[in-house]
Amino acid sequence: MILGNGTRVIVTSQQVLGYGKDGVQRWKSQLEGSGSALVSVTPLTTGGFALLRGDELFEYDGAGVVAGRTKLALMPRLLAAREGGEVVGVGATGEAWSWRAGKVPHLLGKFPSCTHGIAVTRDAAGKQEFVVCSSDALVDQLDVATGKRKAILGKGFFPFRTPVALDGRGAVLATGAYGVLVGTGTSGESVGPLEVPGANLMVPGKEVSVALGGGEVAPIVDDQGTWIWGGGDGVAAAWPGGEPVRLARCDGLDLTTTAGFAPVAAKALVVACRNGRIELHVDGG
To answer: Alpha-carbon distance 32 to 52, whole Å?
Structure first.
């Protein structure tokens, strides 16, 4: 995880470590909390980060110092940052809570189901704030001011499998089962299903209709508006109205060999494979 000040944060089973861009360790803190080995973290707009462990939520500042903690039973992985330094988390029964150090957690509203991930966004005018949640069958958005909820994507042939990507201009994208990209574009047009070209996928309706796994990796939208997602053993990119192009492929016997990816500069992408290999791809190469 990279903080707003450029610090690289690594969480181990006992410690939280902060490293500078030069790879030198800047600070070391004790991993707070107990009762669960599963830890979730997300960077905050204030430069620090939120850390969830068991039924406790912590706020750390950018120097690794604990600024506050609260008891709040949330689902792992379902954390997102709000403007102003608050963090949003979703409980097991769908309640969306917001909190920051020094304040009492407050309820924003409730989703009927929320399993894959959440994101925080605003409307095109920047006035309304929403929490967006994805589950197998629906992508819902919750109006933070009113608590009202509405579905913005309904399940098609491929159920959703990942958190959504939002480009700030109206596009809503998710990786569906078998690693295909699905969603809506900036004008509300349907997107996909788009496959990773040449990926090891077995999609119903093709010559072989046995599902051996898709290896779904959540999509991102880069600063140039490019859609990037992963499925099976590959990572692909597409542009609105264009055909997908494969950017990378991870080797291995397993069909789901892609672990993740992240943009690191303009037209540069780091891809992590499940065999431990990390690759840098520049300008599609």
So the answer is: 9
Global confidence as pTM: 0.79
Question: What is the topology classification, in CATH, of domain 155-285?
Answer: Neuraminidase (2.120.10)
Query: What distance in Å separates the CA atoms of residue 229 and residue 105, rounded to the nearest whole number?
Result: 34
Max Cα–Cα distance, the chain, nearest Å: 58
Is 228 in contact with 235 (CB distance < 8 Å)? yes
Helix ranges (H only) for 29-139 are none
| Rounded-to-integer distance, Cα 89 and Cα 54, Å | 13
| CATH superfamily ID and name for 28-154 | YVTN repeat-like/Quinoprotein amine dehydrogenase (2.130.10.10)
Tens digit of each residue's pLDDT (9 = 90 or more) over 152-171: 887 767 788 888 888 777 78
| Torsion over CA: 274, 173, 267, 200 (sign) | positive
Can you tell me the distance from the alpha carbon of 178 to that of 158, in angstroms, rounded to the nearest whole number? 8
